[in-house]
Design brief:
By secondary structure, the chain is mainly β. It has a single domain, classed as Jelly Rolls. It is built from four helices and 15 strands. It has a 15-stranded antiparallel sheet that branches. It starts with a helix and ends in a 16-residue tail after the last strand. Mean pLDDT is about 90; it is low at about 5-20. The structure holds 2-acetamido-2-deoxy-beta-D-glucopyranose (NAG) (3 copies). One 2-acetamido-2-deoxy-beta-D-glucopyranose (NAG) binds near residues 155, 174 and 175.
Length: about 290
């Protein structure tokens, strides 16, 4: 009986496919792959480094980053957001390269007044150019529990996932001149004061009465192709890395349906349809 249940479970995991791998790897310590990069005294690790808390008050925020840089991967983090009136507070999980022509893939959780839901903003920079914001409402309370946020990056597509649901897809359309991230990127997470823009377009300010704000992180293993310099990054597109295999070149039909559902039901802003900002839709939106 037990083995039948296990078998069915494995089948489910296998057919669900995509994200099972990242999620089934073992727990490793923060310090193995990450280091504190901002606000030393505001980063607290617990449970043998398997969990890390970032803190922000009126004198500092905090952040951490991966020790290595990566080209391609399926990056993941489990995050629990500040559980208070968090207007103005931004919790971010992202990949970024350095320099002016930088690439960047962002999850930005925009805090809100008590009782009002968080908004999740994503953005994509390629060759130093961003301005590709999308925002969604979440279908759960991200402060109540940990949820998994993931970024797939291979030569064919970039996909943002919330738990296992794709919420954003950015295809490689470099053949029609659209920028596509290619530079080695560091994984970072941070908690900072974004009250000049994050909530109600900056009209609702951070209420420091509720400080310190705290965000919790888990899941410090990394499924990505490490690079020391850009010279050997071509190997990072090899299909020997599972996230580069054909299965990850496009969404499966069921993922596609989930994605359409999210766009229809939860998307509150999409730069692609903002005709005030872009009278001509950007090329990648066509
Ligand atoms: C792994 O994914 C499954 C199904 O999506 C979920 O129920 C489970 O909580 C996840 N495990 C971890 C450790 O995140
Ligand atoms: C920061 O908060 C502390 C404690 O709430 C308070 O004593 C201090 O005056 C505040 N500092 C600033 C610059 O607002
Ligand atoms: C984008 O796709 C083209 C093929 O159309 C490929 O040559 C290129 O390497 C890809 N770019 C990146 C950064 O993966």
């Amino acid at each position: 009986m037990g083995s039948i249940i296990l078998f069915v479970f494995l089948l489910l995991v296998a057919s669900n496919g995509v994200l099972s791998k990242g999620n089934m790897t073992k727990e490793i310590s923060f310090h193995q792959n990450y280091k504190v990069i901002w606000g030393d005294n505001y980063v607290l690790s617990s449970n043998q480094g398997k969990e890390v808390q970032l803190k922000m008050d009126n004198s500092s925020g905090s952040g951490f980053g991966s020790k290595m840089t990566y080209v391609s991967g399926l990056f993941h983090m489990r995050i629990k957001l500040p559980n208070k009136n968090s207007a103005g507070v931004v919790t971010a999980y992202y990949l970024t390269s350095e320099g002016k022509m930088h690439d960047e893939l962002d999850f930005e959780f925009l805090g809100n007044r008590d009782g009002k839901p968080y908004r999740l903003q994503t953005n994509i920079f390629a060759d130093g150019q961003g301005n590709r914001e999308q925002r969604i409402k979440l279908w759960f309370d991200p402060r109540a529990d940990f949820h998994t946020y993931q970024i797939l990056w291979n030569q064919h597509q970039i996909v943002f996932y919330v738990d296992n649901t794709p919420i954003r897809v950015y295809k490689n359309k470099s053949n029609i001149g659209v920028g596509y991230p290619s530079r080695p990127m560091q994984i970072q997470a941070s908690l900072w004061d974004g009250d000049s823009w994050a909530t109600n377009g900056g009209k609702t300010k951070t209420n420091w009465k509720y400080a310190p704000f705290k965000a919790n992180f888990q899941g410090f293993d990394v499924s990505g192709c490490q690079v020391l310099s850009s010279s050997n990054s071509q190997n990072c597109f090899s299909e020997k890395h599972w996230w580069n295999s054909p299965k990850f070149w496009q969404l499966s039909p069921s993922q596609h349906r989930q994605y359409e559902h999210v766009k229809h039901k939860y998307m509150t802003y999409d730069y692609c349809t903002d005709r005030i900002r872009y009278p001509q839709p950007p090329l990648e939106c066509l």
